[in-house]
Amino acid sequence: MTALADQLRQIARQSAWFMPALQAARGLGLRNWCIGAGAVRNLVWDHLHGHAQPSALADIDLAHWDPTRPLVDDARLQNQLAALAPELPWEVTNQAHVHTWFESVFGHAVAPLGSLREAVASWPEYATAVGLRLDAAGRLWVTAPHGLDDLFAMRVRRNPRRVSVDTYRARVAQKRYGERWPQVQVERT
């Protein structure tokens, strides 16, 4: 994973939008956070496809894990990010509280998560189960519990940890990966 992690860091550093997003997120002073999921996927797949302009993002997922922060604090953090980087579509989620609302959104209960890494490991596809964090010294840290092979192979596979087959199929249909990135291979389940 080291070579791919280095390649991911290089792609992130060269991005005109991703580095400012990381800098804004770092400005919140959170201890345990990353930007991940679709933001990282789009960053890499746009790069691998040679797109001059980044693909549109529904949101930039800032995931953090802090059981001492109340769930309602995410809205305040999201507003802070909107003030720091208003051109970016932010979504902030404290992964320590996902189990409190997951069933009402996705139809099945889940156990509490014990860490940010565990949260990233539960994201819907292996290619999107990746996060990046920028530390105070300017170092980029990669969280990729399932590795980076699917991300760089442009392969979409369901992560069964929390995503049902039906939810996966709906996500694949909604995301229309092949239209945006023709080289992407989607695993049908």
Condensed summary:
The protein is of the alpha/beta class. The protein has nine helices and seven strands.
Q: What keywords describe this structure?
A:
alpha/beta; 189 residues; five-stranded mixed sheet; two-stranded parallel sheet; 9 helices; 7 strands; single chain
| Biggest β-sheet description | 5 strands, mixed
Mean pLDDT: 95
- The proportion of strand residues reads 5-15%
* Helical stretch tally: 9
Strand order of the largest sheet: 3-2-1-4-5
Order of helices and strands: HHEHEHEHHEEHEHHE
- Radius of gyration, taken over Cα atoms and rounded to an integer in Å: 16 Å
What's the structural domain tally?
A: 1
Tell how many strands the DSSP assignment holds. 7
State the helicity in percent bands.
40-55%
**N-to-C span:** 26 Å
Shape: globular
Classify the secondary structure makeup into a structural class: alpha/beta
Low-confidence stretches: none
Describe the protein in words.
This protein is globular. With 189 residues, it is α/β, with parallel strands linked by helices. It has one domain. Strands 3-2-1-4-5 form a five-stranded mixed sheet. The chain has helices at 2-14, 18-26, 38-49, 73-84, 102-106, 116-121, 149-153, 165-175, 177-180; strands at 33-36, 60-64, 90-94, 131-134, 140-143, 155-156, 185-186.
